[in-house]
Amino acid sequence: MARNGFAEFLVARRAELRPADIGMPAGGRRRTPGLRREEVAVRAGVSADYLARLEQGRDTNPSMSVVDALADALLLAGAQRDHFTMLALTSGNEYRCPGSESPDEQLADSMRTILRALQPTPALVVGRRFDVLGWNPAWADFAAPLGLFDEADRPNLAWYIFIHPAAQRVLRDWAGAADHFVAALNRAKVRWPADDTLREMITALQRSPEFAERWKPHRLGDDRSGVLAFDHPVHGQIDVPFETLDSDRDQSVMIWLTDKTAAQAPGLRLVEPRAVNE
C-alpha cells in the first residue's frame, strides 16, 4: 500500500531525529539514521506494530490523542505540529474533503478588479497549482524579460523555477526561490489532498533532480512572503520583496513590491496603465 502524507511525515521525522534529541545515549552503530521505530512507539505510548501500520499507510485513522502523543514523541511544535495534525486529518480521506477535486481554474472577477486597483504595483493571481491566472500590466512588463511567457499563455511559477533554463540565470538566489516553492507546493498538497492535477504536477517536477532533492513531505517554511533577487535583463540587479494574500476562492494575490527597490534600481520604470491580462 502506498504511503500517504501522514505516513511519509512519520517516517521522515523519525529518520531526522537523533537519540541525543530525546535524551538518550547515542549507543552503538545504527543500521539507519534516526530513531528506531520502537523508541518512538515507547515515547508515544503505542505499540511498535501499530506505529508500523501508520508508517506504511495501512492505518489511516489515528485518534487525536494518538496524533498528539506522536507529535510529542517526535518533538513537533508550532507550524510543524499543525502541519502534522492536518495530515492526520486528511490522509486516507482525501476524496471526502470538499473542494479537493481538480478544478478548471479561471480568474475570478473580484481578482481582476484587485489587479486593476494595484496597478502600477506589479501583481498577479495564482491558483492552487501556481498557474498564473491573471496579472496586471506592471507585472507583465517586469516578468516578460525573465522568460515567464516563453512557453505558455498561462505561466506556472513552480514550473518556471525548476524547468525553465533561464530561471537559474536570472535568479541570484535561485536556491532560496526553489526552497520557497517546494514549501508552497507542500502546503498546497496538504490543503487540497485530492487534487489529481496537483499531484501529477508534483510527480512531473520530481523528474527534476533539483526538485527531487528538496521535496520532503515535512518541508515547511514561510511561503507567504520573501524576496526574489534578480539579475534582470532590463533592470539589472534588483531585489523584489513579495507578499501573498489568500482568498476564499483557492486563488492568491501575489504583490511584487518593486517600488521598495527603486532607489537601488533607478532604471526601473513601471508601464503605462492598460487592460489587465488573464
Automatic annotation (TrEMBL):
HTH cro/C1-type domain boundaries: 34-74
Top-rank lineage group of the source organism: Bacteria
Pfam family, one: MLTR_LBD
Protein name (record): Helix-turn-helix transcriptional regulator
